[in-house]
Amino acid sequence: IKSQIDHFCLHKKFKSSLRNVRAFCGTDIASDHQILCIATMEIKLKQLMKKKAAAQRINIARLKDQVFNVEFKLQLSNMFDTLAEMENMFENVEDAWTAIKKVYIKSTELVLGHTKGKNEELLSTNIWHAISEWKKAKLNLFNA
After folding, report:
1. In angstroms, rounded to a whole number, what is the distance separating the alpha carbons of residues 93 and 98?
2. Is residue 123 domain-resident?
3. Fewest beta carbons less than 10 Å away: which of 14, 36, 45, 65?
4. Which residue from 68, 47, 57 is spatially nearest to 111, judged by alpha carbons?
5. What is the mean pLDDT of the chain?
């Protein structure tokens, strides 16, 4: 048996996965190439990571509006009154703290709602006022 050399093409992404390559002669296929190459590969599948749900931000900018501020205070006081009636039901401090936290979260979601993204103003009203003053001064300079 004479030794046979053949080449095996493989993408560089899989070169660490290649374990063994053998060349066999005498294949019955319609080709002028009579050597068959068989490769053994070990491929590791990538583990998929589940994305964590992003925490929703509460729209606290609405508290600057007097209507939302009063409504939020009223909702919060009503929920704390209900919580005060159930005061004896809590066995330990952790249960009481969990109930207080739920009251705050529920009242903010009901009254204030969530933000839809970053709603930061790029330019504040003071900057817009300064820009308009600058434009007026520029027009006065060219018209004079």
Report:
1. 9
2. no
3. 45
4. 68
5. 82
Question: HEC profile for 87-103?
Answer: HHHCCCHHHHHHHHHHH
61 and 102 housed in the same domain: yes
Same domain, 19 and 63: no
pLDDT tens per residue across span 46-103: 888 888 777 788 888 888 888 888 999 999 999 888 888 887 788 888 888 888 899 8
Domain assignment present for residue 104? The answer is yes
Residue 37 host element (H or E): strand 35-41
Parent domain of 82:
55-116
Q: Give yes or no for a contact between 29 and 8, defined as CB atoms under 8 angstroms apart.
A: no
Helix, strand, or coil (residue 109): helix
Whether this model's pTM surpasses 0.85? no
At 137, is the pLDDT very low, low, confident or very high (cuts 50, 70, 90)? very high
Average pLDDT over residues 9-26: 83
What total of structural domains would you count in the chain? 2
